[in-house]
């Protein structure tokens, strides 16, 4: 099954532009340790059906170790249904593994879909990484 031809989203039609453009099926992910057993995963770009698998592949294994994972979505400009599904899966996965999963949401593009779907009540959502790191327990 073909999801989408990368050339369709390229504005110039050049293959190199399709590979480096913002909708080329990649998101920015930066990971840093924030203390013993705590990792912050900062994401930037658009989380849609093309990029959600990359997010899933990066976040779920970190929850396997029983660590606290803070998913910083401050740099996310779009959060689609596929991204929301990854957040729900990560939350459930973390609960099964005894890991804390916390989400940082500050942009309207992230807050609005969380509120509209009621998912902001399903897992712990914070307005900053510092608040997420300072939280006593996950919900």
Mind explaining what this structure looks like?
A 5-stranded mixed beta sheet has the order 1-2-3-4-5, sandwiched between helices. Helix 3 (52-64) runs parallel beside helix 4 (81-97). By secondary structure, it is an alpha/beta fold. It has helices spanning 6-9, 15-20, 52-64, 81-97, 108-117, 129-134; strands spanning 28-33, 38-47, 68-79, 101-104, 124-126. It contains 6 helices and 5 strands, in the order H-H-E-E-H-E-H-E-H-E-H. The model is unreliable at 1-23 (pLDDT under 50).
Architecture blueprint of SSEs:
Elements: H1 6-9, H2 15-20, E1 28-33, E2 38-47, H3 52-64, E3 68-79, H4 81-97, E4 101-104, H5 108-117, E5 124-126, H6 129-134
Parallel strand pairs: 2-3, 3-4, 4-5
Antiparallel strand pairs: 1-2
Helix pairs in contact: 3-4
Largest pleated sheet: 5 strands, mixed
Helices and strands, in N-to-C order?
Answer: HHEEHEHEHEH
Q: Compute the gyration radius: what is it?
A: 15 Å
Rough outline: globular
Secondary structure: helix percent: 40-55%
Strand order of the largest sheet: 1-2-3-4-5
Quaternary form: single chain
What percent of residues are in strands? Answer: 25-35%
Derived from helix and strand composition plus strand pairing, the structural class reads alpha/beta
What's the number of helices?
Answer: 6
Task: Report mean pLDDT, rounded to a whole number.
Answer: 82
Low-confidence sequence ranges = 1-23
Query: How many strands in all?
Result: 5
Ends: how far apart? 38 Å
């Amino acid at each position: 099954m073909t999801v989408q031809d990368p050339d369709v989203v390229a504005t110039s039609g050049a293959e190199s532009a399709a590979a480096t453009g913002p909708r080329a099926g990649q998101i920015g992910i930066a990971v840093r340790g924030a203390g013993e057993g705590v990792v912050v995963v900062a994401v930037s770009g658009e989380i849609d059906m093309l990029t959600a698998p990359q997010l899933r592949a990066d976040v779920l294994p970190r929850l396997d170790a029983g660590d606290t994972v803070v998913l910083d979505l401050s740099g996310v400009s779009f959060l689609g249904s596929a991204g929301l599904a990854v957040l729900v899966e990560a939350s459930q996965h973390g609960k099964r593994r005894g890991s804390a999963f916390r989400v940082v949401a500050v942009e309207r593009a992230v807050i609005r879909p969380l509120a509209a779907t009621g998912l902001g009540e399903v897992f712990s959502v914070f307005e900053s990484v510092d608040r997420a790191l300072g939280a006593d327990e996950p919900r």
